[in-house]
Amino acid sequence: xxxxxxxxxxxxxxxxxxxxxxxxxxxxxxxxxxxxxxxxxxxxxxxxxxxxxxxxxxxxxxxxxxxxxxxxxxxxxxxxxxxxxxxxxxxxxxxxxxxxxxxxxxxxxxxxxxxxxxxxxxxxxxxxxxxxxxxxxxxxxxxxxxxxxxxxxxxxxxxxxxxxxxxxxxxxxxxxxxxxxxxxxxxxxxxxxxxxxxxxxxxxxxxxxxxxxxxxxxxxxxxxxxxxxxxxxxxxxxxxxxxxxxxxxxxxxxxxxxxxxxxxxxxxxxxxxxxxxxxxxxxxxxxxxxxxxxxxxxxxxxxxxxxxxxxxxxxxxxxxxxxxxxxxxxxxxxxxxxxxxxxxxxxxxxxxxxxxxxxxxxxxxxxxxxxxxxxxxxxxxxxxxxxxxxxxxxxxxxxxxxxxxxxxxxxxxxxxxxxxxxxxxxxxxxxxxxxxxxxxxxxxxxxxxxxxxxxxxxxxxxxx
Length: 464
Ligand code: FAD
Ligand code: NAI
Description:
Mean pLDDT: 97
Radius of gyration: 23 Å
CATH topology of the largest domain: FAD/NAD(P)-binding domain
Distance between the termini: 67 Å
Binding site for FAD: 51, 311, 317-320
Structural class: alpha/beta
Bound molecules: flavin-adenine dinucleotide, 1,4-dihydronicotinamide adenine dinucleotide
Largest sheet: 7 strands, mixed
Low-confidence stretches: none
Strand content: 15-25%
EC number: 1.8.1.4
Binding site for NAD(+): 178-185, 201, 270
Pfam family, one: Pyr_redox_2
Number of domains: 3
Family: Belongs to the class-I pyridine nucleotide-disulfide oxidoreductase family.
Number of helices: 14
């Protein structure tokens, strides 16, 4: 038995980042992780493998669709799927190995196995009980299930995101249930690799919660890339054999029933907190109606000395949100102030083009009755975007009508996931569109489109 200042349960982006910060702040720290590698969902079966496959399949798409125009002629590469999966595995390995190195460097103990919390101040792993002044639960999330649909990742026919990242072969026909982030990122991967992809979505728009103009534009762009959409469709059941599946859905507008066949069905209808086996009910830890661990503004649960962060609590299920909470709770445990600004958490979809957003949408501001102004700029008028054949999309900046303070920004276009951050910094400082407009932006860069959108909030964009 060992005794620690803090034991963190889970080594995902929330847990591992928190551990490093705790150690940096001088706390004796251990992390319990039941997986064979560190990094949680994100590094093992989430952000990182999906981005490796998005990158590789994007390269193929470029070769097939854009090379010839630039005078690069010849046969496009063919897909060696086992090699692409190997590239993905190597990318995972480099990242998870990197966390193990950081644990050693910061003298963080990795307690291997699955944790339970017999009482506040105690964490049990296997037969051993360890003591801790404080415990941080960072146990993450798992895919949600859908009534009438049985996921079998090993079978490779009806899969969730974990199975979809490791299919035995590229399917001829794929049905994706859910037009959210996972469905569109992984749907894009397989569409680029040659699968016929149909996305079946319950709502009447893709990517719920995003700016409506972005939703419409994004859907059009994805449709041009070959993805098919059936919106307003409630999936009833999926019947699967060893090699095929049939998805039955009802259209909400007229209740008519339809079926669609597939070699692979990807169920991507959301994720839910994972807290199994921790013993939270016995401890009396309060939960929300949606199965999240309830916390206060300092990430403390209802039981003294037990904190929770990341996907297991409320808020967007994003790696960077978990990381920010990880650092902040470490500060709290070290007696400092922990800071997370939940109004400025960017969301990015890593398709091509990328989609990125931060802050309020027009719809939200309308609902709040707040007066706002919109500045918009198209990538068609951005020199760099044209030079790299990526003129699809726009930057849409939303500012307070009176004060010009930036309230939100929604980008669809090249490098959107990186461009959004100058807006995040501006918002963090309470800055205005004019602050961005008066800042010199290098030419020719995609970021000029952000500046032009900021200019459009004032006297007008130059290249519009
Ligand atoms: P997790 O990463 O889920 O880690 C929790 C860890 O706790 C796990 O390793 C688990 O094994 C361990 N654990 C749980 N219970 C116990 C226990 N009792 N004992 C020991 N260990 C335990 N987010 C982004 O921001 N950007 C992206 O591009 C992105 N892409 C994604 C792609 C996919 C396909 C998926 C599925 C998710 C993606 N996400 C992305 C979401 C992101 O992965 C999560 O938001 C993030 O991993 C949450 O971090 P976490 O630390 O809260 O939990
Ligand atoms: P999601 O919540 O983004 O999307 C789920 C979609 O499924 C929604 O559009 C919903 O309306 C639809 N849906 C739900 N039930 C349905 C039904 N019965 N029939 C048809 N459609 C149905 O969830 P997703 O894509 O599974 O992702 C889970 C989480 O992982 C997200 O919260 C996201 O934040 C995170 N993630 C983040 C990524 C990123 O930041 N780039 C990438 C992938 C995941």
